[in-house]
Amino acid sequence: MSVLVITGTGTEVGKTAVTAGIAALARAEGRRVAVLKPAQTGLLPGEPGDVAEVARLAGDVTTRELARYPDPLAPATAARRAGMATIHPADVAAAVTDLDATHDLVLVEGAGGLLVRFDESGSTLADIAWAVNAPVLIVAQAGLGTLNSTALTAEALQRRGLESIGVVVGSWPLHPDLAALTNLADLPDAAGAPLLGALPQGVTKLGSVDFLAVAKRSFSPWFGGEFDPETFAAQFAVQ
How far apart are CA 219 and CA 138, in angstroms? Predict the structure, then answer.
């Protein structure tokens, strides 16, 4: 696999932290990594966006952002309000092809959830994943409600013939409640794919060296980490 699309079950679920963690682990293995953000919303020109955060946490990675819109809305809506051009799957596919030629791993980070619209024709991150022929990683919340949103995302991927490689909890709480604890066992069923990691809450406050150490513990060996879902769950006693 040289291209991976990263989607969330919604907004603010930890996609950028997960993207940075995967990038940091790949860099630690000596791989050349590129991170592509097709559309960044909610920021003005010059303000640091998601790719800047990935570079801060992961280190020496190539970053590219194709479009930026000031309003914190879905890309298609934000583009319409700003009177700006939208991003189409073909634009993203061209950028991925370009980056893939000179990198070992290209990570494509979505905006919000899987079916958020990028253009006036209704194209979504699912269409982008199809256009670049890449598998998808689901980033989910830890607590109550996550099973439904994860299952809906997985079903949408399946109906479109897209491969879901697994699910990662983007922000594991410092004090997990009963819902979060039981979700460790239930998320793989909801996703129809394995639990491949759980990043602790607040991990983005770390510097790059400490972040890499946490990423090593928090991601599956599939990404170069040490995370084992059964060992992780065994730390917590569920009555």
Answer: 13
Q: Is 207 a known ligand-binding residue?
A: no
The answer on pLDDT for 205 being more than 60 is: yes
Both tokens of residue 31?
Answer: 């791989």
Whether residue 230 is predicted with pLDDT greater than 70 in this model: the reply is yes
Which residues make Cβ contacts (< 8 Å) with residue 126, sequence separation at least 6? 114, 115, 136, 156, 157, 160, 162
Measure Cα distances from 215 to 51, 110, 111, 185 in Å.
17, 20, 22, 21
Domain count, the chain: 1
CATH of the domain at 48: 3.40.50.300
Percent of the chain with pLDDT over 90: 95
The answer to whether the annotation marks 110 as part of a ligand binding site is yes
Res 223: pLDDT:
97
Given a contact cutoff of 8 angstroms between Cβ atoms, the answer to whether 36 and 64 are in contact is: yes
Residue 237: its pLDDT value, please?
A: 67
Provide the domain limits for residue 107. 2-235
201 annotated as ligand-binding: yes
Q: Which residues are catalytic, by number?
A: 37
